[in-house]
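Lab notebook: predicted structure, single chain.

Context: the supervisor wants predicted structures on file for every construct in the current expression panel, including those that have not yet been purified. This is the next one on the list. No modifications to the sequence; it matches the entry in the shared construct table.
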Amino acid sequence: MSERLEIRLTVNGAPLACAVGQTVASALLANSSYLLRLSPNGQTPRGAFCMMGACQECAIQIDGGIRRACQTEVRDGMRVELRGAADDRG
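Prediction complete. Output recorded below exactly as produced.
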């Protein structure tokens, strides 16, 4: 029997359950969170686009630093904020 391991991270202060081995982007998408941040200049919506780290559209605050959500594997207790480096929303 296969046991699915589940961990929790927080997104903008709210808990989010996800599976071990998922990336932050895939965990967010699986929970219908498509808007990851706003662009710094035009304030237009940004989300996971290429899912391989090339476009950097998914660059958000993860554990206090800017990281690509599609390249960052989830871990228990991770803190995610849906904002980018130039975004001063708090």
